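B., you asked whether I could sanity-check this one before it goes into the benchmark set. Here's the sequence:
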Amino acid sequence: SSGINAEWPLRPGVFLCVFIAALCQSGNNLSILSDKAKGPAPCLKTCTGDRKTTWRKADAWIVTRVDFTKCEFVSTPVVMATINSAYHVHNLGELFDISKSGFSYDVYDNGRSGLVNLANAYWSVSWVATGYIC
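And here's what the prediction gave me:
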């Protein structure tokens, strides 16, 4: 099994709560281990969200854009995201076009008719971004 349609049987938002709880336990010892994201430690910020987005068809994919402009990152943050549907978190698709203001999420529809309608009706995107604000 490729794991593309793997489900994590937790309620939507639980992923974010667990991540935030772990983050709070770490105190002020935040750091980003990335070749791309660089800056002083006092300027690190973690911003999270969970929202319904509008999906559109793009060739063999369905695509949505998540905006996190209000996080006020000054450079591209490190981003993790999942799709919530009913009471499952799906690790499918991929993030692309990541910037300081947001990212795009795409899911291969594999010829499944109506997937874009299903996504618009039932999916939300949960995300965590950590980056620099100064």
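One thing to flag: Confidence is low (pLDDT under 50) at residues 1-10. Otherwise nothing jumped out at me.
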